[in-house]
Structure formats: structure tokens, C-alpha cells
């Protein structure tokens, strides 16, 4: 089946004939008939259907659902790492992910190295020593650098390590990291997968030899997903393909508009020929995604004024929904980074991150043009 069909298809309930997965709102199951499930923190039929769905979409052996994207990341790392292991990440990633690896895991005795932004930098660093675990964002947050998963995976495999890829920005529609050589793919399902800004969830998919270990840790840590949230995510995924088709198209048009705007200093979007990773993006992505960032001419005050002057696009710290949303990374998603850390990554005070939705693209462009006209 192709992605659009996989997204929609659900198993029919054998007992009731229900054509959508029911919400199994229960803590426990009659024993011994319910031995497969026992207790909903460990296994729940609605949640397992979602786990099966991400495995199908990513062409993986197994999938797991978590209470959040950070729950998926932290549980995966804690399952597969132990003190004195070596981990490699890149500096230009979601602030909470970076803090988890560089603050918490280091305090736990894990050796964590962070490469400078750019696919070549992390590949060269991966060659320099044996890393047990390499974690990257396939498209980085918020400057949209694109990692060459295919080339990186070859290096990691040669070293005998595990490559985990946060593919939240890409989605299975635009990229399948496992097919490029990754071992584990992770999603903040709250974003494009659920797609409606109404649920917090995380997902992981990959090879059973790794994911079975991760699933046991999920049961122990309690980073399990609620069945109602799983139901909402399953419902959202049904329209994933058609949403991403519109979002990809809208984002490309808006990126081109902003690149030609006199009040915009720079646009970061992998679908633009001016993007530093454009050639890599063409190689590893089927679509360029729905997130772009741009620097407003001037200072932070100008950037915040543009954000607050928008009438249609919503200022909020999220992304991936049907509604277009804008944020100021320096004071929102990456506020936990120090000024020096932001400078190294390239996050300026005038940078705005835009998550493009499914609205009419002309309305979005007009809204941005009006807001940009408020600064001098």
C-alpha cells in the first residue's frame, strides 16, 4: 500500500465490526482472557493500533507510542545507553532535546559530543571516534539544516553504533529514515502526524532488537500514551498525506515570497536553491516540509512586532497543525539555550520560525506582507 492508503486504513474490530478503532478507556483487563494487555500503562488496544500505524508508515518492524515527543526521545536514549557510552548530537536542534543530552545524560555519566551545524560536520565527527548512539534531527529546528542520513548511517554502521533520527519536520510522507539506513525514527506526533494542535504524543519505530528494549523501559518509566490521545492521533494521521501535500506546496510558495521581500534579510527553507543544504535536501527528501524560518531586517523588537501584527497566522510555541503558527525561537522554543549557544547555532534575535498550515496560501502571504509593512 502507498502512504495515503496506509494512513487511512484501520483493522476492523472482529467482535463489533467497528470501522474505526475504539477508545479503550480502561485501566485493566479480565484475566486470563486479557493477558495480552493486563494493564493499560503497559499495553492498550487503541495505543497499540497507533504503534502499528507508525510502523506501517515508516516500513519498520515495530512501533511504540509515548506520552510526548520528549518522552519518546528520553525513553529511547535511557533504554539503549549506559554510563561511559559515547553519544553524538548536533548543536542545532530543539532546545529541550539538546538540554536532555548535554545536561542530563552527561550528569548520568554518558559522554556527549555536539557537532557544529551542518551535515558534513556531524559526519566528519562521527568518523573521528566510535559513538554508541548518534541522534540527529533529519531537518533541524529552527534553521532547517538537512542531514544526509544515507551517508551518516554508513559511518555509524561501520562504527557499530545506533543511529536515531527525529523526523518530526519531515514526516513519513517526505522521508523514511529507516530506508536511508537509520535504526530508529522518532516523531513528536503532536505536530504534523496528529496535525490539529489538540494532542500531545510521541512515536518511535524501527528494528525490534532495539525497540523491544525501549518498550520495556516505557512500561517502567511510565511514558505511556493515553488511549484518547492515541485515538486523536490515529484520526489525524488519516489526513496526513493530503495535508502534507498542501503544506509542502504552501511552504514553498511562502518561502519564495519572503526571499524576495525587502523587509526580510534571510530565509531558511531547504526547498530554496539559496539554502546551504539544497542539494542534500533534493537527495534525501521527497518534499521540503512545512516549516521555514526567516530573519526580519532589524532587531528583536522588529521581529516581535511582525509576529504580533499578524492577523491570521497564530503566535504560539508549536508547529505542524492545520493552522499556520509563528514563533520567536530565541524567547520560545530555544529559550533554554544561552546567548552563546544560540550564536553558535545561528539563532539570531530577529529570527522567526513559521509553521505553514493548510489555509489559502494567498491569505497567508497577504497576512505576512501586512505584518512586515509595520517595520521600517
UniProtKB/TrEMBL annotation:
Source species: Sulfolobus tengchongensis
Record keywords: Aminotransferase, Lyase, Pyridoxal phosphate, Transferase
The entry's protein name is: Aminotransferase class I/II-fold pyridoxal phosphate-dependent enzyme
InterPro entries with a match to the protein in the record: Cys/Met-Metab_PyrdxlP-dep_enz, PyrdxlP-dep_Trfase, PyrdxlP-dep_Trfase_major, PyrdxlP-dep_Trfase_small
Give the record's GO biological process terms: methionine biosynthetic process; transsulfuration
**Superkingdom:** Archaea
Q: Which GO terms describe its molecular function?
A: cysteine-S-conjugate beta-lyase activity; pyridoxal phosphate binding; transaminase activity
NCBIfam families the record matches: PRK06460.1 (NF005047)
**GO cellular-component term (any):** cytoplasm
Write down the PANTHER family for this protein, in alphabetical order.
Answer: CYSTATHIONINE BETA-LYASE, TRANS-SULFURATION ENZYME FAMILY MEMBER
User: Which cofactors does this protein require?
Assistant: pyridoxal 5'-phosphate
Amino acid at each position: 500500500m502507498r502512504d495515503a492508503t496506509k494512513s487511512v486504513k484501520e483493522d476492523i474490530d472482529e467482535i463489533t465490526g467497528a470501522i474505526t478503532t475504539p477508545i479503550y478507556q480502561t485501566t485493566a483487563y479480565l484475566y486470563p482472557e486479557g493477558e495480552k494487555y493486563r494493564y493499560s500503562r503497559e499495553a492498550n488496544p487503541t495505543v497499540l493500533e497507533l504503534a502499528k500505524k507508525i510502523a506501517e508508515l515508516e516500513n519498520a518492524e515495530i512501533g511504540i507510542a509515548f506520552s510526548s515527543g520528549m518522552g519518546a526521545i528520553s525513553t529511547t536514549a535511557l533504554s539503549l545507553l549506559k554510563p561511559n557510552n559515547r553519544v553524538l548530537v548536533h548543536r542545532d536542534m530543539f532546545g529541550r532535546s539538546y538540554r536532555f543530552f548535554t545536561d542530563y545524560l552527561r550528569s548520568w555519566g554518558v559522554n556527549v559530543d555536539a557537532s557544529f551545524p551542518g551535515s558534513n560536520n556531524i559526519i566528519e565527527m562521527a568518523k573521528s571516534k566510535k559513538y554508541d548512539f548518534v541522534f540527529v534531527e533529519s531537518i533541524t529546528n529552527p534553521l532547517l539544516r538537512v542531514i544526509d542520513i544515507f551517508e551518516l548511517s554508513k559511518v555509524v554502521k561501520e562504527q557499530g553504533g545506533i543511529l536515531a533520527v527525529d523526523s518530526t519536520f519531515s514526516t513519513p510522507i517526505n522521508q523514511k529514515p529507516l530506508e536511508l539506513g537509520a535504526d530508529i525514527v522518532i516523531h513528536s506526533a503532536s505536530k504534523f502526524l496528529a496535525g490539529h494542535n489538540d494532542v500531545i504524543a510521541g512515536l518511535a519505530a524501527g528494528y525490534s532488537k532495539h525497540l523491544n528494549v525501549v518498550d520495556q523501559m516505557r512500561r517502567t518509566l511510565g511514558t505511556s500514551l493515553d488511549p484518547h490521545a492515541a485515538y486523536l492521533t490515529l484520526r489525524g494521521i488519516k489526513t496526513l498525506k493530503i495535508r502534507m501535500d498542501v503544506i509542502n506546496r504552501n511552504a514553498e510558495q511562502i518561502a519564495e515570497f519572503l526571499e524576495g521581500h525587502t523587509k526580510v534579510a534571510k530565509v531558511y527553507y531547504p526547498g530554496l536553491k539559496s539554502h546551504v543544504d539544497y542539494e542534500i535536501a533534493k537527495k534525501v527528501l521527497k518534499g521540503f516540509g512545512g516549516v521555514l524560518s526567516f530573519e526580519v531586517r532589524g532587531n528583536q523588537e522588529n521581529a516581535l512586532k511582525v509576529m504580533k501584527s499578524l492577523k491570521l497566522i497564530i503566535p504560539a510555541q508549536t508547529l505542524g497543525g492545520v493552522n499556520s503558527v509563528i514563533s520567536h525561537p530565541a524567547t520560545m522554543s530555544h529559550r533554554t539555550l544561552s546567548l552563546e549557544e544560540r550564536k553558535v547555532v545561528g539563532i539570531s534575535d530577529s529570527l522567526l520560525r513559521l509553521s505553514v498550515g493548510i489555509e489559502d496560501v494567498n491569505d497567508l502571504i497577504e497576512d505576512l506582507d501586512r505584518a512586515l509593512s509595520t517595520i521600517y
